Amino acid sequence: MRKIDSLEKLASVAVYAGAIIILVWAILKSFHVIQSPVWMEMIPYFGGGISLLAIAYQAGKLMQKVDEMAMEIRKLAGFNERILKIETKCDERHSSKR
Fold first, then answer.
1. What string of H, E and C letters represents the secondary structure of 8-65?
2. Does the pTM of the predicted model rise above 0.70?
3. What pLDDT is stored for residue 67 in this prediction?
4. Burial of 12 (0-12, 13-18, 19+ CB in 10 A)
């Protein structure tokens, strides 16, 4: 199991919090509980903005992990090429001695 850093946890919480804010606002608004002034009309936009920022952060972290994996794969490919060269040299040396 991998460790999740605190910023990643915060981003996950922010996504859910933004979605919940929008959902609660929509429900309260539909039942006319909210007779809202202008600043309350902006609540869904704040919730959506928070969610979008958190999603962007999580996407950035995912891209960073993909780049790290690609780098590791390139290292392995280089390692395999070196092993093949060593095997070829060993085969050449052993076949010439026979």
1. HHHHHHHHHHHHHHHHHHHHHHHCCCCCCCHHHHCHHHHHHHHHHHHHHHHHHHHHHH
2. no
3. 92
4. middle
Structural domain boundaries in the chain = 6-97
What pLDDT is recorded for position 11?
A: 81
Tokens of 56: 């962007």
Whether 14 and 51 have beta carbons less than 8 Å apart is answered as: yes
* Residue corresponding to tokens 């290292």: 75
**For the chain, which ranges sit under pLDDT 50?**
1
Residues 6 or more apart in contact with residue 20 via CB below 8 angstroms: 47
pLDDT at 1: 45
